[in-house]
Amino acid sequence: MTTDSNWRAKFSNFVRNDVPESSSSYERSANALSRLISNPHTFGVHWNDIQNNPEKFFLAHELLAKRSPELGPGFWIRFTVHFNLFAGTVVALGSKEHFETLEEASKRGEIGCFALTEKYAGVNSGLVVETTAEYDEKTREFVFQTSSDGAKKNWISQGLVADWAVIVARLNMYGKDMGPHAFLCRVREEGTKEVKRGIVFGDMGRKTIGNDLDNAWIQFDGFRCGRGCLLNRYADVRESDGAYARKGGDVNQMSAIGQRLFTGRIAVAKAALTFCEEVFKHTKKYSDAKLCAMRGSNKTLSHVPQLKALYEESEKRLKDVDRFVTFCKKRLSRVLKVRETPSVELQTAIAVCKIRAVETAIELTFRLKQEVGSYALMDEASFKNSDFLQCCKFAEGDSRILSQKLARDAFSGFLKQNSARSIREASICESIRRQIQKYKEDRDGKYNKIDAWDSCWEDVYALADAICDRVMRENDFEGDDNGKDESSNFTKSTPSLVSRL
Ligand SMILES: Cc1cc2nc3c(=O)[nH]c(=O)nc-3n(C[C@H](O)[C@H](O)[C@H](O)COP(=O)(O)OP(=O)(O)OC[C@H]3O[C@@H](n4cnc5c(N)ncnc54)[C@H](O)[C@@H]3O)c2cc1C
Fold it and tell me: ipTM score of the complex?
């Protein structure tokens, strides 16, 4: 089963008729999501699509993104937070009991949020988690605590309406820090929607766009949730003796939680491209009809040379990136169906996909806006919701953080093996190596490693750029639907030169 036309018609109908205008209240927008969740037969989406039918899962994101120039980012984020970050994490990390909970909650139209980001962590969310969940042996509950102001969860989408949350917190067992784990918790009472004891939700405040989406900060002060809330595919607290037990091999909890970021990156990459394509389409319609004075044989605005060139350039560039995104999406879909982890090569390709799609969409949309005169200011034009792309930039892995990661991996591979994957990368790595060497010498060896790395920041981003160029160039993504296995289209890499994102 993939995506039949019957399903497409059902979901498109929802997108056209049921997604409220962006000027709607966040409660109204949340109600629309709730209807979608509780009516899988009418609207055709189910929480388990991410595993059972990833093609449908991705296409639903894309169909919603098509309306984003008109509707802004609010409902799109709401949708992806529930179906990817929240339900997707339960699918990836939970067990049978959690799936049953999700099924029952969905029948009631209950909404989930994903509480990862903390104030101090910012874009490094996931790498820095300070919220704690301490196991209380006597009551067999986890007790959640916000340890400092910086540990408050912030920007949590639909936090003001969610019935459930996947909370990422450091598990503390008998005084020992077991690192970040994910917990599925009911945060509002069934029926009354009253917030559970020990949790405070607050509003992040008004945004430039997307105010049909509520964003919350969350503080935990002794919030308690039963033993079963731990998403326990890879680690559990044993019922018999209350001991912590790893399951299914030595899987790092945080990289398991990070799985959802891969699906999110593909969905965001495609959404950014779709937004940009739609803006170009609407604008072209306007400029084809708009006549300009003092012109040659063709007087339409579309034929002003700089705009004509931009249309040609954008068509080619958007198509190239889109092909690469589609290639990665197909590869990832195969992995999702068997509930596995993408190979390191695929993880790298997905990071490249996210960076290139979002940055290309931002650049082209911004340039287009500069070339169409007063139309850029009109309410009917699509530029008013360009901050949709701003959300894409930092969602599911900020472009800068992903670029830093690509560059760091390549540089450490270069130091170990004195080689890189392309001449350009080798030359930039060598330049970084020399600059860091000089930085150390200038300080008699007393230096901070991050400061030294930051001192060559331009080369760092140039290195990331070179990696993106190479990854897109070297992968055979033209003929990718040939039934080969997930990694077979990737150029064979030297494993020590790449590491997990
Ligand atoms: C509308 C919206 C919805 C969201 N929904 C959710 C959600 O549902 N759940 C959730 O957990 N989170 C959510 N987030 C959080 C989001 O994913 C980001 O993690 C967060 O907003 C970024 O934090 P910040 O603004 O403090 O960025 P900062 O950490 O202040 O970073 C600002 C900029 O500085 C740069 N930067 C920072 N650190 C580095 C570094 N080490 N190296 C290089 N550059 C760096 C980057 O360019 C970055 O864009 C949401 C955010 C928004 C705005």
Answer: 0.98
